[in-house]
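Reply to dn_fold:

You asked what the input looked like. This is it:
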Amino acid sequence: MKGTRPLDNAEIRKVSAAFDGTFAVRNRSLFMLGVSVGGRISELIALKVNDVWQNDKPVSDLLFDRNIVKGGEVSRAVPVNVDGRQAIEVLIAWHLEYYENVHPTRPLFPSRNGQGRQAMTRKAAHDVLKDAFETAGLNGKLGTHSLRKSYAQRLYEQTNDIYAVQEMLGHKKVVTTQQYLGVNYASVREASEAMSVHSEGDIRAKTSPSVDNALDDELLIELLRRGYDVARLLEKNNTQQPFQLPDEETASNFV
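and this is what came back:
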């Protein structure tokens, strides 16, 4: 889905815990495998059991064969990390419990209907993931493509190698890969602090009362612009100097 955003590790853990119901294992494994190998949702739901389970264990490298790759142009192999391997193991155990066997050509992510002969649809995948995102309390534009973008973003942050990410995603052009990668804000914040020539204590020591007052005025103007009841805020904060912006919970009471 165009414009969807990636998830960070904390959000991935929240979503992983948000699945429930009879098919929770299937749905959670779809999510965890997606963020671990970066497959398109169409590629993931096209997988068969024997694509990920060989010699009674999860594969260490997952082959997306050209017959399921978008455009059918070239196959690609992607390493499967511990999250992905655990997702496969749990899913195979679910197959054994739910169907009483593990058939190698059964869809890895079977539909609720058809006794496992048919794979779940893209719409079904979209619906279960959307429900999990909402249950996890996440915001922003999220969809099935968020799994692929999460893999791309996290792989790039680990390798700093956009060409490696391009190859793992199967992109023809690196410019396509660039569109997947956003800014790691936490890293930018750390880098910004590292650029400072003064410590926080130095800055506070050099700040004069007149500057404090000017900053207070700017804060008050900003609060007025946002529609807060500044008079009530001043009354509530009359013992606090210098004046500070309220946190979101407190501020919401003064709108």
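The chain is about 55% helix and 5% strand.
Hope that clears it up.
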